[in-house]
Structure prediction request, 163 residues.
Amino acid sequence: MSYPQQGQGHQQYQQAGHAPVPAQQHAPAVATGYNMKRRNPLGVWLGLPIITFGIYGLVWFYKVHAELFAYDRRTGDAATNALLSLIFGFITLGIWPLVMYVKLAGRIAQAQRAAGLQPTCSGGIGFLLGLIGFGVLYYQLQLNKVVDRYGDIQPGQPVSLAA
Prediction:
């Protein structure tokens, strides 16, 4: 038994008395994700970390990475990696947490592109502001731009991605 050459399979199928095989119509795939939670930048930056003795900083870093992955699966799931980088960052003398902190800017910029916005989040600015204590404030303001793009859609609800 021989296998048909490329393009001959449909001809043999039709010669055997079967109905013609229609060409598949490919509709453009619309990417979807889940909306993120809008957070108060001042509360995230100053209020909750003071009240929780810094524990909220770890929670925020984990949740932001998890929400970015739920929003756009193309960014990769880095939530656990991000949390571990903060907890065990002393092993690498703080280098690993800094790398994850700068990479967060790239993930936020990708989310801004996926929302159809011009990406304005910069790893360099986030790093410099982080050195003087304003990095979380900057990143949360950038994240809120993505959330505001979708208006009153509740967190966790499906949203369409532009890019």
